[in-house]
Amino acid sequence: MSAHRGRYRRIAAILERHGLGVGLGLLGMGGWVPFNKGVLGHARRDEPYTNPEHVRLALEELGPTFIKLGQLLSTRRDLLPAPYLVELATLQDAAPAEQWEPIRAVIREELGADPEEVFAQFDPQPLAAASIGQAYAATLHDGTPVVVKVRRPGAVAQINEDLEILESLAARADTRWETAHQYNLPGIVAEFARSLRAELDYLHEGRNAERFAANFADSPDVAVPRVFWDTTTSRVLTVERVSGVRVDDLAALDAAGIDRPALAQRGANTVLTMVFEHRFFHADPHPGNMFIHPDGAIALIDFGMVGQLDEEVTDQLAQVLLTFTQGDLDAFTTAVLALSVTKPAVDRDELRGSLGTLLAQYRGRPLSEISISHLLGQLLTLLRHHHLQLPQQTALLFKVLMMTEGLAAHLDPQFDMLQALTPFSERLVQRQLSLPALAKRWAQASADAGALLLELPATLRRVRQLLDSNGFEVHLRAAELEPLVRRTERIGNRLIAGLIAAALVNGIGELVSNNPKWRSREGVMIGAGAGMISALGGYLLWTMRRRR
Fold first, then answer.
1. pLDDT digits 0-9 by tens, 344-358
2. What pLDDT score does 510 carry?
3. Quick one: 538 exposed, middle or buried, by C-beta within 10 A (0-12, 13-18, 19+)?
């Protein structure tokens, strides 16, 4: 803490000045509040500032790291009440433009020459200035128009210092404040730090752009600017300059003859393809990052913030959407619990009742009348009420889905987001029930069963040793049982999946024997899985007979 003494004092002074000093003791910062708290960093007004406004103003005063933290929290309806979400959503990552000479020095250090030599033309007036970097218009020697992003001098040092402080404060709060512990504050800060540090590296953004370009290489509907690696480093990024009409400029779109309802559907399909097909999505699809070409293609820019989902989370999200549309309350409750992460024990019956009330609001209503943004907002509020928390990537995804629906509805007021989502969810479920997916789950269930069998003799020996001595006493609290229950349920689910799959062994065996294409690793894996399940069944029967 002493290494950042000055910064701690400034943070404490700003929080105290905005009436947010109550939590300083919980953060171990009570002794850092200076006697002279300094002058107000915002204008006075007759009407008192609200608490959410004070939080926003404090974050603005604290600088880039805290502004980006506020922007992240503005998407977390599972963590914060609505008034704070609304206020934090107004945070802008803007900053006064850096002087030209320090920027020129960065380009010279990174590219080995002055910008006037590296580029045929370079405009020293920035196109945009943000807290991490600034963007400039330039032209390559072959005549290609480009945009050059340059990281501000000193940005990394300041952000790293703030992230170290935030990580330390989160760890301290986790041990002193039950709410921070319930919501895994250190985990939220760690994920935020990882994401922000990635944004600092322009090589990372360049690789993201190329990955999007590869994913949409065969799509005429999406354009991704080319990265010029000869003039790109971790501090300087050179990409093809994008032209077109901003996606939210309705008058310009109409003047260009763009079919807005078709564009709304195309834009939504693009985002949903990223999420459900590629599992790699643009995490900041606001109108300033989307431009429309004359042929209607969507040009994307700014790939510093991206989201990535693993197969399990994508499948869980599909289950939430499908069970909701089917109105299956028990399955919907199970899907919501699977999608969330939490530390405290959850009252499933109480959660089921809340979800039942939510389903009742939408029962019988046509899909065209249901707003996915409103639905997700209600679901996130419900999760916060039950102290359930989403993984950061899932919360980011929810934000993207809500932004996408809002933008599509701006283009076409009749747009139906839930209808656009349905085919993607259905394809996911079809993939889950495909033979390769079943074989994969079967193999995993077999591996889990095998591991359980291998561990069982040693575990039984330890239990017998305890019983042969003076016995043992068991003291358990519900909260301590939760991890054990989750692990048991997970293994149980996989074993059940394996037993169900065992019923298919004969049929699949016939397929293997009659089809030469399956006489390979798949056949071996299926046979091994069948053997493992048979072994487990025999062991269970032997155990039951012994008990008799």
1. 678 889 999 999 999
2. 47
3. exposed
- Please state whether 69 falls in left (phi above 0), alpha (psi between -120 and 50) or beta: alpha
| Whole-angstrom distance, CA of residue 182 vs CA of residue 193 | 20
Q: How crowded is residue 443: how many other Cβ atoms within 10 Å of its Cβ?
A: 18
406 within 8 A of 286, measured Cβ to Cβ: no
Distance (Å) of CA 460 to CA 98, 117, 473, 487: 68, 75, 17, 19
Q: How far apart are CA 256 and CA 262, in angstroms?
A: 14
Cα R_g (the chain), whole angstroms: 28
Q: From the CB of residue 364, how many other CB atoms can be counted at a distance below 10 Å?
A: 6
Query: If you average pLDDT over residues 141-146, what whole number do you get?
Result: 97
Q: Hey, what are 275's tokens?
A: 């999420």
The rounded distance, in Å, linking the Cα atoms of 260 and 73 is: 32
Residue 365: its H or E element:
none
Crossing angle for the helix pair 155-176 and 185-200, nearest 10 degrees? 170
Length of the chain: 548
Q: Annotated catalytic residue: which of 284, 328, 349, 412?
A: 284
* Three-class secondary structure assignment of 295-356: CCCEEECCCCCEEECCHHHHHHHHHHHHHHHHCCHHHHHHHHHHHCECCCCCCHHHHHHHHH
Give the SS3 label for residue 240.
strand
pLDDT top residue among 69 and 546: 69
Tell me, yes or no, if 162 is annotated catalytic.
Answer: no
Cβ(319)–Cβ(337) below 8 Å: no
Among 46-55, 248-257, 306-315, top mean pLDDT goes to 248-257
Distance CA 439, CA 24 (A): 53
- Is pLDDT at 101 greater than 80 in this prediction? yes
With contact defined as beta carbons under 8 Å apart, do 526 and 439 qualify? yes
CA distances from 436 to 1, 25, 507, 518 (A): 53, 55, 15, 12
Q: For residue range 431-484, what is the model confidence (pLDDT) as tens digits?
A: 766 677 667 666 766 776 777 677 767 766 766 666 666 555 555 444 444 554
At 182-223, the pLDDT tens digits run 667 788 888 889 888 888 999 999 999 999 999 999 999 999
